[in-house]
Amino acid sequence: MKKVRTEDSVGMVLCHDLTQIIKDEYKGARFKKGHIVKKEDIDVLLSMGKEHLYVWENDDSMVHENDAARILIEIAKGENTNYNNVVSEGKITLTSQIDGLLKIDTDLLYKLNSVDMVMMATKNNNIAIEKYSPILSTRVIPLVVKKELMEKCKDIAKDKKVAKVIPFRKLKATMIATGEEILKGRIKDNFSPVLKEKVKKFNTEITDVIYPGDNVDIIKENIDKAIENGADVVFCTGGMSVDPDDNTPLAIRKSSSKVITYGAPVLPGAMFMLAYKNDIPIIGLPGCVMYSKKTVFDLVYPLIAAGEKPTKDYIVRLGEGGLL
Length: 324
Hints:
The chain is α+β, with helices and mostly antiparallel strands. Helix content is 28%, strand content 28%. It has eleven helices and 19 strands. It has helices spanning 41-47, 65-76, 106-113, 147-157, 180-183, 191-200, 216-228, 248-255, 288-291, 296-305, 312-316, and strands spanning 2-5, 18-22, 26-31, 52-55, 62-64, 81-82, 92-96, 100-104, 118-122, 128-129, 134-140, 144-146, 163-167, 171-177, 204-210, 233-237, 258-262, 273-277, 280-285. The strands form six sheets. Strands 15-14-16-19-18-17 form a six-stranded mixed sheet, sandwiched between helices. Strands 6-7-11-9 form a four-stranded antiparallel sheet. A three-stranded antiparallel sheet has the order 10-8-13. Helix 2 runs parallel beside helix 4 and helix 7 (216-228) packs across helix 8. The radius of gyration is 27 Å and the shape is elongated. The relative contact order is 0.10.
């Protein structure tokens, strides 16, 4: 690559895309990498503010930005991800090939971004991602880099990958909607239709909805029965607060073999509870899940749906970014 005056570039080959921006009208590559500069291009290039151009000359010790992007995307590309090999203005993007849980190797990402002249940006770790959604983009900063820089990135990664997507398991769930007011017909159950819709994108189906009232032992009995009948997950709604009639957390505690947490540093969703009876998750959902677009449910349930077991430490760390 060498730098030449634009007026002297006729017949030479561009070694990078040249972006043109016209306010409210156009933004894109006006001239693409590999374009042979013509006489009629000169005025356009000058109007774009290009007094000088980088044109191609062979140098076996260097890697062009487009080729470097392809090397980096291969380092990033893990299970259930892919890219279409189109490099635009030096950048290439990785997408998910399934609906699932996005997993980012944050340590590897940090190490790669610590390499001068390399950048890689991802979506947040441990979020639900839809099929064909972009999850990562990468490029090098200059137009060309030394080959040894790319070798350094390969050595850092070794056999690790930055991003992968874990598919959601097909799960059948039981919902236990507590509250005497629902059992006795004083109010309508508005929670179950909302929750049924929310869990669909995680490949979960609520097959049974039970109304046990507020009695601790009856709630516990229904949790136990749901698990005995083959539920893969049990959702408990209602009675998750601190009022005298809110007995759901105690019933969950009695039914479970291990309580992960009662309470989460997330708003909306502080009164969240997660416990397990052997390997079956029992999830206490606060009322906010019914009416808020994003809650603690959206931060925790994708992991469960993908077969992971959120730890107490994981939930504690949700405090950073937990103000939804």
